[in-house]
Predict the structure.
Amino acid sequence: MTFATQMEAARNNVITKEMEVVAQKEGIPAEDLRKLVAQGKAIIPCNKKHRALDPNGVGASLRTKINVNLGTSRDMKDMDAEMAKVDSAVSMGAEAIMDLSSYGDTRKFRRKLTADCPAIIGTVPIYDAVVYYHKPLIKITTEEWLDIVRMHAEDGVDFMTIHCGINRETAAKFKRNKRMMNIVSRGGSIIFAWMEMTGKENPFFEHFDDILEICREYDVTLSLGDACRPGSLADGTDASQIEELITLGELTERAWAKDVQVMIEGPGHMPMNQIAANMEIQKTLCHGAPFYVLGPIVTDIAPGYDHITSAIGGAIAAQNGAAFLCYVTPAEHLRLPDVDDVKEGIIATRIAAHAADIAKGIPGAEDWDDAMSRARHKLDWEQMFDLAIDPEKARAYRASSMPQKEDTCSMCGNFCAVKNMNRILDGEIVSIFDE
């Protein structure tokens, strides 16, 4: 028997080939994964038309995954450059690529991704509608918004960010509760403006059942967008953010009733002391659906270093239940990232994800660290480089300042504690200055 979605198969006690692949990657029994997918606590985004996909699972009890945003803009329209970023991201271990293109032949680029890229592919139909129809925002019709959702599903994308939580009711609450930074979500600002100009309901909210039918047909995972995510520390955990989250929780149950896989998008900018509470609120309001967070960015003062502010927040978020971290690059708030920025963002986010996996006790997560410690104990530099999250950078740093003695580094030399402890415990003489 053929099932429409991974969730439907899981609820019928069927382990799909995608579940088998993901379970093997996670090192867990396939039956355990099947139960998580059936409950909505784990997802396997895998559009039936994405033939190149190497599936991965997203859920709080699985390894923390990372997503890389990229895509063309009016000021940076080189699709070959974006494909170079895609290739780099996949080679560095990113499990997902989100195409945020807002200029040019976006469909050509999207189809190339789903034809060739093994990573999970995500998109934001709201952006693409503005590009595709090439007309004033106010003139885009409800039907045209929905047609773009179907187009993306047909093109093979595995998940779509749908900004359906900001309806006219939540928009009214937003206007009553003033913010320092207003709405900073691009998709959220677009649909808010459309509602204000047309006086109509958000089509993604009003016609949510139609969207579910499209997602069910292709097995597209819904990423319920956080139009009201905070864009400054001052706006963290405010009424608009929580009001939208309540709506997303209600929509999650409607999606699950149709066997459509769901994850929830979250903040944003937020003080560190609010992150754990936000994860708990999301788990409660959204019934344990996987949480996908942008950062959170824990301070607003570090343009050029937001890969660091984001990694700090991402590690805390993932430790407390976030399943999916969207990378942030040093170029955040400043410009479209280049290939080097993409690398910096990926490495920072992978460090955050790995640190969180250790903290939450993911089986085998600490094995990598133990192997590195054994290599350091032996002062085996080649093995250290091989185990490094960024071997190229580790090798370059050592090569830039070679010590007089190869078994040390240029910081400690003969004062090296590791070297001296190894020698003294082996019964050798340690004299340091006489060597």
